[in-house]
Design brief:
about 525 residues; mainly beta; seven-stranded antiparallel β-sheet; six-stranded antiparallel β-sheet; 34 strands
């Protein structure tokens, strides 16, 4: 397998996929396949499997790996004070399989389908480790296509393709509406399989989703578009958390967004008209229907804010690994196979330890490795990524989580802190207990209790008040609360004391509470 570093011969590779929806949607179709469930043959021609497979132009070297490398998500970042462009690999891919092959596997328990998806996700994570977005692992979803010949497979990826996590509920469900008086009609749910059992994923807009594309033979079934009716509609989240609709300006004239309000939460209605021979396409974003509810009068917005509050959240992006106070001779943070902190009662697979001199990683079936951040270590199911600790944090390093942890803001005023074990204690509104791992602190000649989560984090650590697009931050206990701007530069801390002035935390900025690196941003 070719190392990914050899592929970076130019800052922006040449694109070769022909897509009318580019760059919102890139589509690769492979033909002349002997086995549509052969992950190696679909992924990389260099592996030697499926030697006759090719793209529609006849090129046999163009498989999914090459397509993802040459068609990337381009983002801007600062490097030595200059604005540079960086290419990141898309992570979400929808795999369209021939309907006959799908039905054959359905009768056999879907084992080969689960193996195909897992192998593609692992190859994607391995080969694009260096250019994946921070905190985002590859996600694949397979669907049947009755129009695909038995020797073909089609892949969709791009800005408008999003695969939700297993078990995740959408913040807003995507619905089709025939007219204002008719009840909304849901899109056909996506189905994936776990141990042969079908699990549904609602079609909608999710917490970490930026856009959704609708077009003919795309990742979603939208009956308004057919192969004979070209065009597309793109739903995109704007800078202020509102959703906007766009057409391709040639085949689809988009009439715009009309915000509306319902008792259950936010709602947007979009209308689109291509020509006089077709009725308009009306799309609605609404709170997802409660499971088992009859009709749409009962809805549920999981974790949503109360009426009148904008959907904002704190996101736990990383852990700032602490230096040692004099009372300690070391600490250990236990991780699961994906590189996330393990729950107290979970198996301890990996141990990340610090003794004041060395930061090292060890665990079952994993050699001891001394770490010097920034560094990325490949794990059996993911990657552990360490970065330099932000200046002003007094940390050894920053451990970036594989995926941010969402902490929804559900009240206008609330406190964050750690759990208070005293009977009848008044607990903080938002408890930070991810690092409450027993025995994680090693004391100097003392037999004391406590865990890594105790370091620098009080039971009532910070008091926060939501003011439009900002948070007013005050120290609720005896410890200061450190704030950082979007570039990780330390701001003036919120100091303890009744007379201390609250500090303003804006969207996109960070708050450090103990070891918890929290980002304040939109919840959509």
């Amino acid at each position: 397998m070719r190392p990914i570093s050899r592929w970076f011969t130019s800052p922006r590779p040449r694109t070769w996929l022909d897509s009318p929806c580019a760059p919102h949607l890139w589509t690769l179709e492979l033909q002349n396949l002997q086995d549509p469930f052969n992950a190696e043959g679909l992924w990389d021609a260099a592996l030697g499997d499926e030697p006759d497979a090719s793209d529609p132009s006849g090129r046999r070297d163009r498989r999914l790996r090459q397509a993802l490398h040459d068609h990337r998500r381009w983002v801007k970042r600062r490097e030595h004070g200059k604005l540079v462009e960086e290419g990141q690999a898309f992570t979400d891919v929808v795999v369209m399989l021939p309907k006959k092959a799908w039905n054959d596997q359905l009768r056999l328990g879907m084992t080969r389908l689960e193996v195909l998806i897992d192998n593609l996700e692992q190859a994607h994570a391995r080969d694009f480790e260096d250019i994946l977005p921070a905190g985002r692992a590859p996600r694949y979803l397979a669907r049947p296509d009755p129009l695909l010949p038995p020797d073909r497979v089609r892949f969709h990826f791009g800005y408008g393709v999003h695969v939700p996590a297993e078990g995740e509920m959408p913040l807003l469900e995507l619905l089709m509406v025939e007219n204002e008086d008719a009840p909304p009609r849901a899109f056909t749910p996506w189905v994936h399989y776990r141990d042969g059992q079908p699990l549904e994923r609602l079609v909608g807009l999710y917490a970490d989703q930026d856009a959704q594309i609708l077009c003919a033979r795309g990742p979603l079934d939208c009956p308004w578009f057919t192969p004979d009716t070209p065009g597309y509609v793109l739903l995109r989240r704007g800078a202020r958390g509102e959703w906007e609709g766009f057409g391709d300006d040639v085949h689809t004239e988009f009439l715009g967004r009309r915000p509306a309000t319902r008792e259950q939460g936010p709602r947007w209605v979009f209308g689109s008209l291509a020509d006089v021979d077709r009725p308009p396409l009306i799309l609605e974003l609404d709170a997802p229907m409660e499971p088992g509810a009859a009709g749409y009068e009962k809805t549920l917005a999981p974790g949503g804010p109360p009426p009148g509050l904008r959907p904002l959240a704190l996101w736990l992006d990383a852990l700032v690994l602490p230096r040692l106070p004099r009372e300690l001779r070391g600490w250990t943070l236990w991780l699961d196979p994906d590189g996330r902190p393990a729950a107290p009662d979970a198996p301890r697979d990996l141990a990340l330890s610090w003794d004041g001199r060395r930061l090292q990683l060890s665990g079952k079936q994993f050699p001891i490795q001394t770490l010097n951040p920034p560094e990325t270590v490949s794990l059996p199911k993911g990657a552990l990524r360490l970065e330099e600790a932000p200046a002003g944090s007094s940390g050894v390093a920053m451990l970036c989580l594989p995926e941010p942890v969402r902490l929804p803001i559900e009240r206008e005023r609330f406190e964050i802190g750690r759990f208070d074990p005293r009977p009848g204690a008044n607990q903080a509104d938002l408890l930070l207990d991810l690092l409450d791992q027993p025995g994680s602190l090693r004391w100097r000649g003392r037999d004391l209790q406590g865990s890594l989560g105790n370091l620098g984090l009080g039971r009532h650590h910070a008091a926060l008040e939501l003011r439009e697009d900002a948070l007013l931050v005050s120290a609720a206990g005896s410890l200061p609360v450190v704030l950082f701007d979007a570039r990780r530069h330390a701001l003036q801390a919120a100091e303890p004391g009744e007379d201390a002035e609250p500090r303003v935390l804006k969207r996109g900025q960070f708050l450090l509470a103990g070891c918890y690196w929290l980002r304040f941003d939109d919840d959509l």
